[in-house]
Amino acid sequence: MGLVCVCRYDRTKAPLFVEQAGVDLYSLEELSYFLYHNICLVDRHFFDERLVRWLREEAGCKELAERLERGISSGAALKDLVMAVVGASGVYFGKELSKLEERLRGLGTLKEQERLKLRADELLDNRNEWAAMEEYRRILKMHQNSQLGLGFYGAVWNNLGVCYARQFLFREAVQCFETAYEYQPDDRIREQAELAGQLAEGILPGAGKKRTDPADPQKQLLKWEREYRVRQKW
To answer: Are residues 135 and 213 in the same domain?
Structure first.
């Protein structure tokens, strides 16, 4: 049996829109849940005047809004801002809060490229492929850090390929998968490159040289999408 959380705060009339995930939040509890489960999508810019105003005017959390306002103006660390919100909601306690705080500390020890990849991976998990693509490209434009290893960059190229494939940009996906394979030779990457190549040519995967029926492209697109939804990021 699942646990039930009784919300202490009223549902707001106007939501807080979180662009990173494309979701509307209607209460402090929902905001807390979002932060707890999507912490890599949040940076210090998330805690701005818009958030403070929503907490004060819509969510009725004046004390928390003032606390955040002081923290923002004094340059408080991201960890402290996140913990202030999650702790105030009453949704999480004890070990859960300790686990979140430990994770936030761990994020602070990562290299910038690693943090960006975690952010991009969460965007990809949330079906926000275009935003994820921007983060992966941002990593690839940075100076390559040899300490991260070839496998790291292979995973970035692979996941960028998944983003392209989900947008039916199969030719671009092929290039990404092939580059990923150069960094990290793996049969799974090669298979993805071959599959994307077939789709780019309009060939039905697993059907040899049989091309798709142009009379029903929408039906075929849905079939291709189902194929690529099972492709896992790295």
So the answer is: yes
- The continuous run of DSSP H or E covering 23 comes out as strand 23-25
Identify whether residues 44 and 97 lie together within a single domain. yes
DSSP 143: P
Look at residue 2 in the predicted model and tell me its pLDDT: 47
* Residue 18: φ, ψ to 5°: -105, 105
For residues 123 and 41, the answer to whether their CB atoms sit within 8 Å is yes
pLDDT (tens digit, 9 = 90+) per residue, 165-212?
Answer: 998 899 999 999 999 999 999 899 999 899 888 888 887 666 555 555
The CA distance from 102 to 95, in Å, is 10
Residue 136 · residue 198 · CB < 8 Å: no
* DSSP codes, 149-171: HHHHHHHHHHHHHHHHHHTT-HH
